[in-house]
Amino acid sequence: MAVLALFHHAGGSAAVFRRLTRLLPDHITPLVAELPGRGRRWREPTLHTAEEAVRDLTDLLVRQVGTDDELSIFGHSMGAYLGLGVAAALERRGGPRCQVLFASANLAPQRAVPLFADGAPPASDEEVLERAARYGALDTALLRDPHIAARAVSLLRADFDICDSFVRTMSWTVTESRIVVCRGREDAFGDEHTDQWQWSSVQPLTTHTFPGGHLYLESAGAEPLAATIESVMTEPAQSPT
Predict the structure, then answer these.
(1) pLDDT digits over 55-92, tens only?
(2) MF terms per GO, please (predicted)?
(3) pLDDT on residue 88
């Protein structure tokens, strides 16, 4: 069975993959993962380090994916970094192995710098929301509700902590998985930001661009993205070199 695990962006949830999962062919089984604090896991306390998040997602895949299944991971934005960490963790644990990591909408981790300085005073709510707004990932209408806005800030703080933790401690992680970079044509990240994903894998890098911006998978980019995922996942597996 071909399984595609999907990891969401900072402040996001499984909802970001609704359109994409409807477009996937029947022979690809989507496994949409959510970090604690959202969706069906909303009662669980949020995580704040990359180590915790990678362990949480790795445990999920070990429980739900068989060792004979053909596993790929699609990680969007923050999820791309966590996907890299999980792919490497699965290799160390000897569980199901990730054949392809689709690294979506994020610059190569070796080029990244923390969003917030280590040891600096906590960012204000406005600063947290401004960071998220740069990528068009905020529904400003929903933020008019103070309870929703407070919840959004809380999740973003936790996820930004995870991102910064990854950049500081795991940015040079290397996987045996093939990495396929996916990005929107109108996103902030171009070739100069994503080509260095090559340093994260022992296999050659492939890059695909799609219509749309940072959340291209929710708009016009969804259909060609689904077709690309199907094409890549049906190619013969490549052996690490």
Answers:
(1) 999 999 999 999 899 999 999 999 999 999 999 999 99
(2) hydrolase activity
(3) 98
Q: What is the pLDDT of residues 152-196, one digit of tens each?
A: 899 999 999 999 999 999 999 999 999 999 999 999 899 999 999
**Long-range contacts of 237-240, Cβ-Cβ distance < 8 Å, separation of 24 or more:** 237/70, 237/99, 238/178, 238/203, 240/176, 240/202, 240/203
Q: Quote the tokens at residue 33.
A: 């993962």
